[in-house]
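Need residues for this backbone.
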């Protein structure tokens, strides 16, 4: 499919329209070919937000959970119908391999479908109960009950460049099911995928239930007001700026953040080299370094192995990562594409150099010769594996290089010391530990859980069916404390909390039960 240079339209106040000026130029990161222009300059963004609150919000709140779930199911079906087209767009605009593009598109589709199933189970009600009735007096008639109801505003979804489809799907599914209209602000560099996805699903939703501003639209967060929600995925630096917005500070606009994360993989000292648990560890680490060219919030950045296995793990990782074929995603045999932009390439290369000041470069120093790409074209970086010289060096635990870069550490013998070393990452999205020792697994969970939103335990028991730490499951929470942002997305019904008001009701038990049951 050949893409013509296009201007991405904006969907605001129920109408598709083009912005003024040139805005941002979107490129193919493999060839540097211009693909599209994205701008929302000259459009009435405030009016678009107001329309979404008024029209989209009212339409969604009038529906039951089961009805909203049918909308999510219809969205998933539309994405499936356009799956091949969306995959190819992700390959061109995002530099994804076909496998990585499917990971993104199918993740969006699967998340929407999962929440459609949850909605069907909730039935024809518009109030979500949080627990059972609580007796407040001596007689059972006087009762209290907690419920969730939709917030009377708009949810602004600010997504990162790395998952323009899945990032949309995981936020949109929870917001729409909760009964809030959404306004999407995708990252400009990969906005073609997000834009086309909204085009595909928009007409199955009520007018105003979904909107999109196709370029930077920096003023959108400042236009939010009481009752609105801002759900953000991106850097911790940008998150700090959003937390200081007057709309957030003074109007109590609810803010959910998923930010930086130096995720870790830990190999237990009980694991035998060559066994199923060892092989699971290796395959997970290699995939999480390479997949999406390391541009994943869940990618493995630090690898901790016991002294007795360090040399073997080092050699095995180098052998497997050295064979990763880098190049144009449309070239046969390519396993890893470019990073998304020239700025991203410069950031990855500069970051790897900073890490190398405190580590030995095992792989990656020689650069990269991408397959199927003329010399000098494209935003390609090499797979880079380093080995820490000084495990206490702060930069190794504080600098997240958002690319295919990871550092190998020798684990301390003491489990508490190992946990302390991992915790120097300042809070993370996910940590994976590979061990068949139940006592050690328990000790690691108790130590690691306060610092991570998710802990994945790899073992021989589940080696044949494990999905890996990088797969964000809609059933489980996605988010993490500290530098990871402190947010919580997904997690089944837990994902609706950001977009809902939890209210305590008290009164006649029969009346409260009737309200909850619709």
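Answer:
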């Amino acid at each position: 499919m050949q893409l013509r240079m296009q201007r991405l339209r904006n969907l605001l106040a129920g109408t598709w329209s083009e912005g003024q000026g040139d805005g941002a130029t979107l490129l193919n990161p493999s060839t540097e070919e211009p693909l599209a222009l994205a701008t929302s300059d000259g459009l009435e963004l405030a009016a678009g937000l107001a329309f979404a609150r008024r029209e989209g919000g009212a339409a969604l709140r009038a529906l039951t959970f089961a009805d909203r779930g049918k909308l999510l199911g219809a969205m998933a079906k539309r994405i499936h119908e356009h799956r091949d087209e969306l995959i190819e767009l992700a390959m061109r605009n995002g530099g994804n391999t076909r496998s990585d593009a499917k990971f993104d598109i199918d993740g969006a589709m699967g998340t929407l479908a999962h929440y459609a199933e949850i909605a069907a189970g909730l039935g024809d009600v518009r109030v979500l109960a949080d627990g059972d009735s609580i007796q407040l007096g001596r007689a059972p008639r006087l009762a209290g009950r907690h419920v969730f109801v939709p917030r009377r505003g708009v949810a602004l979804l600010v997504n990162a460049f790395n998952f323009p489809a899945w990032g949309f799907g995981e936020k949109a599914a929870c917001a729409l099911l909760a009964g809030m209209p959404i306004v999407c602000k995708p990252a400009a560099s990969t906005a073609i995928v997000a834009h086309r996805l909204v085009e595909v699903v928009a007409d199955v939703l009520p007018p105003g239930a979904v909107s999109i501003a196709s370029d930077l639209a920096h003023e959108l967060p400042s236009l939010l007001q009481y009752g609105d929600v801002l759900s953000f995925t991106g850097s911790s630096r940008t998150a700090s700026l959003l937390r200081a917005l007057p709309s957030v500070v003074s109007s109590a606009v609810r803010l959910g953040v998923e930010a930086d994360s130096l995720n870790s993989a830990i190999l237990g000292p009980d694991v035998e080299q060559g066994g199923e648990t060892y092989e699971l560890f290796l395959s997970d680490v290699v995939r999480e370094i390479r997949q999406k060219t390391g541009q994943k919030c869940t990618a493995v950045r630090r690898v901790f192995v016991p002294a007795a296995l360090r040399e073997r793990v080092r050699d095995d990782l180098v052998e497997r990562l050295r064979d990763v074929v880098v190049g144009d995603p449309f070239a046969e045999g390519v396993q890893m594409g470019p990073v998304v932009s020239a700025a991203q390439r410069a950031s990855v290369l500069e970051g790897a150099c900073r890490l190398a000041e405190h580590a030995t470069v095992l792989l990656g120093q020689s650069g990269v010769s991408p397959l199927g790409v003329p010399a000098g074209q494209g935003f390609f970086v090499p797979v880079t594996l380093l080995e820490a010289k000084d495990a206490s060096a702060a930069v190794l635990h504080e600098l997240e290089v958002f690319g295919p870069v990871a550092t190998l550490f020798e684990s301390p013998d003491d489990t508490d010391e190992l946990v302390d070393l991992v915790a120097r990452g300042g809070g993370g999205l996910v940590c994976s530990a590979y061990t068949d020792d139940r006592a050690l697994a328990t000790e690691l969970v108790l130590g690691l859980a306060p610092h991570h939103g998710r802990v994945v335990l790899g073992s021989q028991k589940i080696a044949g069916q494990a999905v890996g730490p990088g797969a964000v499951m809609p059933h489980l929470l996605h988010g993490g404390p500290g530098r990871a942002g402190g947010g919580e997305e997904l997690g089944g019904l837990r994902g609706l909390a950001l977009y809902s008001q939890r209210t305590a009701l008290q009164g006649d038990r029969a009346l409260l039960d009737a309200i909850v049951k619709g």
